[in-house]
Design a protein that fits this description.
alpha+beta, four-stranded mixed sheet, two-stranded antiparallel ribbon, 2 helices, 6 strands
């Protein structure tokens, strides 16, 4: 299998995403695509990590994403799309704390396409964030 060819595109006719914020388009020309279910701030035993602590929960979620993508044979730099689901109890002032954590896990020069929404609630009480991903695996 050949290495996936990935392109990250930001058309000038769309709002600029800012430095290393996200890419409008992630195009995968070849390779294996992996869809990773929404990861939540729980450990392998189902215990909620960082109850009431947004930063701790974001750290746990990205750690879980890393475990998942590596289990599929990939690396975090292979993530081409992230979907963020935020619980309504998270204050807007807390949201910027996500970025420095995310930036330790992704390829900053070519950030994944992203969607970030606030939802009515997440499935389990105590979860403040859930993140799902799509990754392109290198051979």
């Amino acid at each position: 299998m050949s290495k996936p060819s990935k392109e990250f595109i930001n058309p000038k006719a769309l709002i600029p995403p800012g430095p290393a914020a996200y890419s409008h388009i992630a195009k995968v020309n070849s390779g294996t695509i992996v869809y990773i279910s929404g990861q939540v701030p729980s450990d392998a035993f189902g215990k909620v990590i960082g109850e009431g602590n947004f930063e701790a929960q974001v750290e746990q979620v990205f750690g879980n994403l890393k475990i998942a993508v590596e289990a599929a044979g990939g690396v975090m730099a292979g993530i081409v799309k992230l979907n963020y689901y935020l619980a309504p109890e998270v204050e807007q002032s807390e949201v910027p704390k996500l970025r420095p954590i995310r930036d330790r896990y992704i390829k900053l020069e070519k950030p994944p396409a992203s969607t970030f929404v606030v939802v009515n609630r997440l499935m389990r009480p105590g979860w403040l964030i859930e993140i799902e991903a799509i990754a392109a695996l290198d051979a």
